[in-house]
Fold this protein.
Amino acid sequence: MSEYYLLECYTTPDRWDYLEVEQHSGADQGQSWISGQRFDVTIREPIDLSWSLDSHGPRKYIYDAGIPLYHRDVCRALASAGVDNLDLYRARIADPRTGSLCEEYLAINIVGLVTAADLSKSSYVAYNNSALIDTDFDALSIEPSRASGLLMFRLAECSTGVVVHRSIKPHIEAHARNPDMIAPTFVAPRAWLG
């Protein structure tokens, strides 16, 4: 069993239509949410976003495009598991059809960008002769000793990849139990496409 998983929130073929979050111009306040670094400005809260007009269906526990949004239940699970390298910001997601506001999600900045891939055991394509930031993986191998004890971090070789220690999994599964929502997915590194 792997020490680490990649944290995703996949849909299944019977649940393709799910609510998408749209990012408004300036909502990111000029900061990169996938850099693994603390922000150098004060983020104005709440961060205002909206649900997409053309999507419907069950909500996901995690949205990872643009500004990462984690449901408050997942944030509670991470805290209970001992994850202490997250900067959390209040978010407000408007439904443009009804005007209702959803405040069940927090925008999260994961502080920690770790060069943890064992490239000699991974299958990947690197661009610009560098295996950093946007490497495409068909299979990933993680070297646990490089994680420096972090329970959750961004993968430096592909910064959209969120890596969690296996000890996190039962905490999230215990908190993210609403059957009407799309649960987080724990992907083994060898099976991860990133």
Notes: The chain has a mean pLDDT of 88. The two ends are 20 Å apart (CA to CA). Residues 3 and 22 are 34 Å apart (CA to CA).
